[in-house]
């Protein structure tokens, strides 16, 4: 029963789903706060328009036509940070565990040639003892 549970947990789909839903949602809030509090003000200082920050205006007399590039850059930074943390904290260790379990199972299973050799040796011992 525990082996079946272990096999269920080690399946790639279950782990990927857990990573994407639980950790992605929780960590996104932290990264978003950092980018809104630190990155966006820094990007706003780079912008030519002091009122709106980094971006450009399509029509000079209409402020509603301002295209803000700062939030787009911040969203890209959010994505990269969340993806990096999820990879290095969850995916990489899980892949390491999978490879260790796979090596242990490979060592346990004998090859066909080894089994045939063992059968031959056992049969040879039985024929000698008769």
UniProtKB/TrEMBL annotation:
Record SUPFAM superfamilies: Gated mechanosensitive channel
Stretches that traverse the bilayer: 12-34, 66-90
Main location as per UniProt: membrane
Assigned keywords, A-Z: Cell membrane, Ion channel, Ion transport, Membrane, Transmembrane, Transmembrane helix, Transport
Locations listed in the record: Cell membrane
A Pfam family this chain is assigned to: MscL
Topological relation to the membrane, as annotated: Multi-pass membrane protein
Protein family: Belongs to the MscL family.
Assembly with partners or alone: Homopentamer.
HAMAP family: MscL
Function as written in the Swiss-Prot or TrEMBL entry: Channel that opens in response to stretch forces in the membrane lipid bilayer. May participate in the regulation of osmotic pressure changes within the cell.
Protein name: Large-conductance mechanosensitive channel
Biological source species: Nocardia tengchongensis
Gene name, Swiss-Prot/TrEMBL: mscL
């Amino acid at each position: 029963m525990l082996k079946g549970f272990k096999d269920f947990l080690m399946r790639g789909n279950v782990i990927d789903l857990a990573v994407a839903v639980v950790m992605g949602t929780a960590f996104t809030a932290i990264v978003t706060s950092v980018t809104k509090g630190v990155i966006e003000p820094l990007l706003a200082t780079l912008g030519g328009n002091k009122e709106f920050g980094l971006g450009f205006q399509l029509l000079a007399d209409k402020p509603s036509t301002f295209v803000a590039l700062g939030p787009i850059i911040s969203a890209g930074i959010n994505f990269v940070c969340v993806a990096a943390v999820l990879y290095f904290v969850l995916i990489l260790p899980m892949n390491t565990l999978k490879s260790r379990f796979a090596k242990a199972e490979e060592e346990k299973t004998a090859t066909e040639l080894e089994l045939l050799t063992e059968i031959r040796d056992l049969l040879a011992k039985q024929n000698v003892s008769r």
